[in-house]
Amino acid sequence: MTESMPAEPPHPAKDVTQHVGYLIKRTQAALRGAMDRVLREHGLTVPQYATLELLALHPGMSNADLARATFVTRQSGNVVLQGLQEAGLITRPATADHGRARPAHLTEEGRSRLARVQAAVYAVEERMVTAIPPERMAALLTDLDRIAAALED
């Protein structure tokens, strides 16, 4: 039997809690928790909120496009859209004009709910970004984008 050597970490770290991946996950979990708390007061989930934001910017997106953009499966995206439709926040045609895509659009109530919740969500992001010196923000955004691109297939 051969004894395997422990793998070398990709950068100096005392333990796993100092690895980049661990710190990114910790940050993501803290952000998600903070967003969950403020969105709960408005009767929304993070995927529902993200969907409303995206539809405000890009009316008519399909379930598949929204699912990709909100980091959920198509099946979960469809559940999100059904919930938003039942709440009167979006509309979708009953059937697709062509193919299977049923474009979604915000209703007046959807636009109104989004406007009410944005201030609360933006306050969470403000809390987060104030921890970064302003002169480092552009570099952080570039680095995060590079990290994501390096891991995408």
UniProtKB/TrEMBL annotation:
Classification via InterPro entries: HTH_MarR-typ, MarR/SlyA-like, WH-like_DNA-bd_sf, WH_DNA-bd_sf
- Report any one BP term from Gene Ontology: response to stress
Q: Which PROSITE patterns is this protein grouped with? A: HTH_MARR_2
Where does the signal peptide begin and end?
none
Q: Which Pfam families match?
A: MarR_2
One annotated GO molecular function? DNA-binding transcription factor activity
Where does the record place the HTH marR-type domain?
17-149
Mind telling me which Gene3D superfamilies this protein's record contains? Answer: Winged helix-like DNA-binding domain superfamily/Winged helix DNA-binding domain
- Recorded protein name is MarR family transcriptional regulator
